Amino acid sequence: MRKRGMAGVAALLLFTSGSYAQDHDARAILKGMTDYLSGQNALSARYDTDIEIITTDLQKIQFTSSGELTLDRKVGLRASRTGGYSDVELMFDGKSATVYSHDSNSFATVDAPGSVNDLVERLRNDHSIEVPGADLLLAGAYEKLTEDVVDAKYVGLGVIDGVECDHLAFRNAETDWQIWIDAGEHPVPRKYVITSKTVAQAPQYTLRIKELHTDLKTDAGAFEFKAPEGASQVDVDGLGDIDEVPPGVVEEGDRP
Rounded distance, CA 155 to CA 157, Å? Predict the structure, then answer.
């Protein structure tokens, strides 16, 4: 390990003191991002995710997936996630939601009248299904993100895929989380990292938004599910394992 010089130590102490953030307001930048996104009636995104787990022998393993998402706040939601262990799609048309597993060629449909926000909460609470990026994209995102924040910092500038971003860091009792927001005309999120403080070795979940388009026109047909040939309808539990992490790799609670 290379020794840190006195100038480096002084810089580190200055950084941890929080005085570096006096000229910037992390909460205001975050609010600007969520206001901008919530003001878009329709948007689409391509993304990558990484999720780390801690095995029973205390080895940290990372699993990676990619996907796409299309959101029309007045019409519906369509999202996909493809990884090494599952390939799934979610379609919601304002009345019902369907989860389709390409691996098993099976689908489950549940009645879900209401908004996209209502759907996301129901999937999360009733079926442990997460919609990637929902924390950032949905109405009321700022209040959800900051409701238990005890510390907010403007870290500085970073570059994600060649785009200069404002780097923010937040803390609550159970997690530290960071977000990189495009510093240009359109304050869209580029990277989002959640670090668990309640699990040994602090595993992380990372969302990287590769593309985000807001100049989008959709129609109701884009959110309707059409069962592929030979597909079987099952209940949600009958879909099998559609998680990002393969079964048997990790004990419950050893992931972010």
Answer: 7
CB 68 within 8 A of CB 90: no
DSSP element (H, E) containing 99: strand 96-101
Query: Looking at the DSSP assignment, which residues form a beta bridge with residue 42?
Result: 72
What is the SS3 string spanning 129-161?
CCCCCHHHHCCCHHHHHHCCCCEEEEEEEEEEC
For the chain, list the domains and their CATH numbers: 23-239 (2.50.20.10)
Alpha helix locations (H) across 189-231? none
Question: How far from 211 is each of 45, 51, 68, 70, 103, CA to CA, in Å?
Answer: 5, 20, 9, 12, 26
Identify the pLDDT of residue 250.
53
What phi, psi does 26 have (nearest 5°)? Answer: -60, -40
For residues 25 and 168, is the Cβ–Cβ distance under 8 A?
Answer: no
pLDDT tens string 10-30: 444 444 444 444 446 999 999
Which neighbouring-strand residues pair with 206?
A: 50, 193
